Amino acid sequence: MNKSALRVLRMVAKWQAKGAVESYDKDAQHEFARKVADDSIVLLKNEHHELPLDKQSSLAVIGELAARPRYQGGGSSHVNAHQVVTPLAAMPQTATYAQGYGLASDAVDDELTAAAVNLARQSQQVVYFMGYPEEMESEGFDKTTIDLPGNQVDLLNQLVQVNHHVTVALQNGSVVAMPWADQANAIVETYLAGEAVGEATWDILTGKVNPSGKLSETFPLRLADNPTYPTFNSEQNEENYHEGLFVGYRYYDSKQLPVRFPFGHGLSYTTFSYHDLKVTDNDDQVQVEFQLTNTGDMPGREVAQIYVGNRVSKVEKPTKELRDFVKVSLEPGQSKTICRTLERRAFAWYNPAEKRWEADNGRYEIYVGSSVEDIRLQQSLDYELGQDPLQKVTAETYVVDIVNHQSPKIKSALEQTGLGRQLTAILQSDSAQIFENIPLRSLVMADIDPQVVQKFIELANI
């Protein structure tokens, strides 16, 4: 114990501040935190233009998370906030609050429920704060569900029976299952929005700020849809990740699995159109150019996303992968030309056997859109990146990979061994399709001497 304490004291002595601590404007930092939250909050759903809220209508604010918000992570991520402004403190002066449920337990409190339902019945609009209590999300343990507490969901079911203008404001650090999503006209995802959570939430709800946040993860319909579901936590001593590249949206998109809200999703109070896509191959770069127009009647910002689909490499690849994005501010009716550059790395994949990044010549798809599912523009590209690398030639290398490769070393080895003439002959026969798709070791079926094949392999790898 003494040794451990001494190490801490030595560290304190070594790194203690020298001289006066530099001061900074905490109020200015609070305003910055508010702006960051404004930029990050995601409008997931907005049916019948439920949002922005009607300032002339009576408003009920319901949920203990309005008074005791989740605004930061759990465990060691805790910080001492300068000024936490809760949604309750920042709500419009004409709004009325009811607690509705307790965070300490997921049991239904009949008295709190009745008061909240009665308030909703008397109000024209409802903003209902839902989310995970801090005890459900922290370091040091794994969650066992992505469902919200039962008392919160039970109250929502009752609120929508007495009021048809319910907006759900979520506070959570990870995805939420929403079997109840169809019941709410609007859903706003605030995540853990920082000390200005109250002000930022109402900035979005009232339309003071037009939402422009996008999801950086996929919200599945249910936990069992996650690619890790069958194997996660199945062994006591180790965790094996079998999904490989197919993590997150790469899995859901490639499998064409329905989701609640896709990666990159996020609505606005205005609308945007994408048009006039031009894709240009400039040697080791690809230029992607398109027009983006604000077709609504409010200023807004859109996060335009560029995905690349690899159709050539003979390795497992997702249907498409995000390779670039840009946030664009537009006034109503305004258009901007967006020009982005995709470097060679955007088309590359890592070869663990060769311990290097490789990019292959051939067909790629360029997608531009508002989310991984909401693709507005698409164009094919036959991209030439130079000589395709050929892996070490072995008896398992397929014939088609040899005959299609144009490297001088392969051509020379084919000529020196005479294997090139023999392959040409069999690939002009009626059995060409069969022989293209066999490994070199199987050429014995075409009466080709295995020693000739072995000599070719040796020369090809010099």
Molecular structure report:
With 462 residues, the protein is α/β, with parallel strands linked by helices. The chain has 3 domains: 185 residues, 3-Layer(aba) Sandwich (Rossmann fold), CATH 3.40.50; 112 residues, Sandwich (Immunoglobulin-like), CATH 2.60.40.10; 62 residues, no CATH class. Helices cover 26% and strands 24% of the residues. It has 13 helices and 17 strands. The strands form 5 sheets. The chain has a 6-stranded mixed sheet. A 4-stranded antiparallel sheet has the order 12-11-16-17, with no helix packed on it. Helix 6 links the parallel strand 4 and strand 5. Helix 2 packs across helix 7 and helix 5 runs parallel beside helix 6. The longest helix is centred in the N-terminal third of the chain and has 15 residues.
The percent range for helix content is 25-40%
- Which class of secondary structure composition applies to the elements? alpha/beta
- What fraction of the residues are assigned to beta strands by DSSP? 15-25%
Number of domains: 3
| Terminal CA distance | 62 Å
Unreliable runs: none
CATH architecture of the largest domain: 3-Layer(aba) Sandwich
Largest sheet: 6 strands, mixed
Biggest sheet strand line-up: 1-6-5-4-2-3
Q: Kindly state the number of beta strands.
A: 17
Average residue pLDDT:
93
What is the H level of CATH, i.e. the homologous superfamily of the largest domain? Answer: Glycoside hydrolase family 3 C-terminal domain
User: What are the secondary-structure elements, in order, as H or E?
Assistant: HHEEHHEHEHEEHEHEEEEEEEEEEHHHHH
- Outline: elongated
Number of helices: 13
CATH topology-level fold name of the largest domain: Rossmann fold
InterPro entries: Cellulose_deg_GH3, Fn3-like, Glyco_hydro_3_C, Glyco_hydro_3_C_sf, Ig-like_fold
Family: Belongs to the glycosyl hydrolase 3 family.
Organism: Limosilactobacillus coleohominis 101-4-CHN
Pfam family, one: Glyco_hydro_3_C
